[in-house]
Amino acid sequence: GAVVSQHPSRVICKSGTSVKIECRSLDFQATTMFWYRQFPKQSLMLMATSNEGSKATYEQGVEKDKFLINHASLTLSTLTVTSAHPEDSSFYICSARDEADTQYFGPGTRLTVL
Amino acid sequence: QQQVKQSPQSLIVQKGGISIINCAYENTAFDYFPWYQQFPGKGPALLIAIRPDVSEKKEGRFTISFNKSAKQFSLHIMDSQPGDSATYFCAASKGTGGTSYGKLTFGQGTILTVHP
Known about the structure:
The structure holds two protein chains of two kinds. By secondary structure, chain A is mainly beta. Chain A is built from no helices and eleven strands. Chain A has strands at 4-7, 10-13, 19-25, 32-38, 44-51, 57-58, 67-73, 76-81, 90-97, 103-105, 109-113. In chain A, the strands form two sheets. In chain A, strands 2, 4, 5, 6, 9, 10 and 11 form a seven-stranded mixed β-sheet that branches. In chain A, strands 1-3-8-7 form a four-stranded antiparallel β-sheet, with no helix packed on it. The model of chain A has no long low-confidence stretch (mean pLDDT 93). Chain B contains no helices and eleven strands. In chain B, the strands form two sheets. In chain B, strands 2, 4, 5, 9, 10 and 11 form a six-stranded mixed β-sheet that branches. The radius of gyration of chain B is 14 Å and the shape is globular. The termini of chain B are far apart. Chain A binds chain B through residues 1, 4, 6, 32, 34, 42-46, 49, 57, 91, 93, 95, 97, 101-108, 110, and chain B through 32, 34, 36, 41-46, 49, 89, 95, 99, 102-109.
């Protein structure tokens, strides 16, 4: 199956700093990628839809100025958590959609904000 | 109308038994129903998916049963193994165009434990 990678897998940062998470589709091109957030023992919550070459579409309640998304190429989308605070600590997961409309998920990034 | 309700919240099965997880949806525009398996600290992995034009799909030990009139679908894991112990999520999405195209709505998840 298709492979989606995320980097870093784990990051610890101080409150007030910014953190960038990369999502790459390794063996297919993805015009659309999705970013999710998952709290412990909870389901995945869609944060935003990332479209190559255009602005991301954010779900209701997600601050677009805090969670900056850039989809620079057909294989790379980045999520930047700006001015991170402890409440932003979570598991961030991306997915990429292939030409058959199947979504493949990355391994996730564990963000801890001190 | 975007909700997908999943049950049970947790499930304990003996090795070799059948695990059954159910999901119900409200939005009749949904036309793609995948199931994902997630291990702790990992991203979800696609197990099997179905579209409403068929009532059942089988891949190895995994079977999806789909009831369009009842707006329900279920995952059956035959001959359950300890290695199947994980959290399972059902999901649904709309395949046509528009702003909701391809967005997955997830169920709440089921923690499956298979005892040896």
